Amino acid sequence: IERIEIDPVTKEPRFRIIGTELWSDEAGFDEAAAASGITGICGSGIIEAVAEMRMAGLLDESGLIGSPDQTGTARCVLEGRTHAYVIHDSTATGGPLISVTQGDIRAIQLAKSALYAGARLLMDEMGVDKVDRVVLAGAFGAHISPKHAMVLGMIPDVPLDKVFSAGNAAGTGARIALCNVAARAEIETVVGQITKVETAIEPKFQEHFVAANAIPHKTDPFPELAKIVTLPSPSFNTRGEGGDGEDGGRRRRRRA
Predict the structure, then answer these.
(1) What's the number of domains the chain is made of?
(2) In sequence order, what are the beta bridge partners of 88?
(3) Is residue 251 part of a domain?
(4) Is residue 256 assigned to a domain?
(5) Are 198 and 157 within one domain?
C-alpha cells in the first residue's frame, strides 16, 4: 500500500498499491491487485496512514489510537493493552491482516520528532522561527505527500506549494562534480561555508524532540496547515494526564 485515504465520517479506508493507479474502491482494482497481492504498507504509505488517522479522529494529539467506542468504528481493534486500526483484512482467504498498531505510531513519532527537532535546531542557528520553503531530498522524499508530512509535524509549517522534492540530490551532485570542473570549485566553496550542527550535543535538542512527539506539535501552531486542514481534538487517554500514552496510564503500587 503506497497511498491511503480515510473517510472522516465513516472511518472507512481506501488505498492504492504499487503497480496500479486504481483505488481499492474502484472497479477493476481486485483484478489489478491479483498479480502482486496486497502484502503490506510501504514507507510513504505508513506516513499517509498515520496522518489520515489523525485527520479522521482515530488518533489523538498524543498519538494514542482510540477504542471502537471512542472512534465509532469497529476497525479500531483491541491489541493487547492498546488498539490498532485495520486497513485490510484478507485472512479469510489466507492473506495478511494489514493494520496500523500503536507500536507503528510510536515508531513514526520517534522518527518524525528527530527530523523536526533537527530542523528546529537549524532554524535556531539561523535565528528564525519560520522558513520560506522546505526541500525534501532523497528518493524517499520524492514519494512523500507534503500535506501528510505536515499533518504529522515531520516538516516545518509552510504553504504546501513551498514544499519541493529534490529527488536524489546526492546522486545529482556527484554527476555534476564528475562532469563539470568549474562546479567542483563552487562545491568546495560552499562546503567551506557550511556550519555543522551536532544534534547529540545541542542542549535544546531534547526540548524540541519532546515537543515534536505530539501530532503535529505540542507548542508550534502550524498556521499554514490550519488553513487547509481542520484537525479534530479527541483525547483517548481516559485515565488522566498521568498516563504514559500507550495504555492510558499505569497504576501506582500501594505501599504497605
Answers:
(1) 2
(2) 98
(3) no
(4) no
(5) yes
Question: What one-letter code names the amino acid at 30?
Answer: D
User: pTM here?
Assistant: 0.87
Per-residue model confidence as pLDDT tens digits over 237-252: 876 543 444 444 444 4
Q: What is the C-alpha to C-alpha distance for residues 231 and 221, in angstroms, rounded to an integer?
A: 12
CA 176/CA 2 separation, integer angstroms = 32
Same domain, 164 and 178: yes
Q: What is the dihedral of CA 115, 121, 142, 15, to 10 degrees?
A: 40
Residues 62 and 90 in one domain: yes
**24 and 117 co-located in one domain:** no
State the residue range of the domain holding 198: 105-226
Report yes or no on 248 lying in a domain: no
Would you say residue 8 has pLDDT above 90? yes
Give the contacts of 19 (CB within 8 A, at least 6 positions apart): 32, 35, 36
Residues 245, 225: Cα–Cα separation, whole Å:
25
Q: Quick one: average pLDDT of 191-196? A: 91
250 is a domain residue: no
* Nearest CA among 215, 205, 211 for reference residue 236: 215
CA–CA distance, 78 with 247 (Å, rounded to integer): 11
Which grid coordinates belong to 7?
473517510
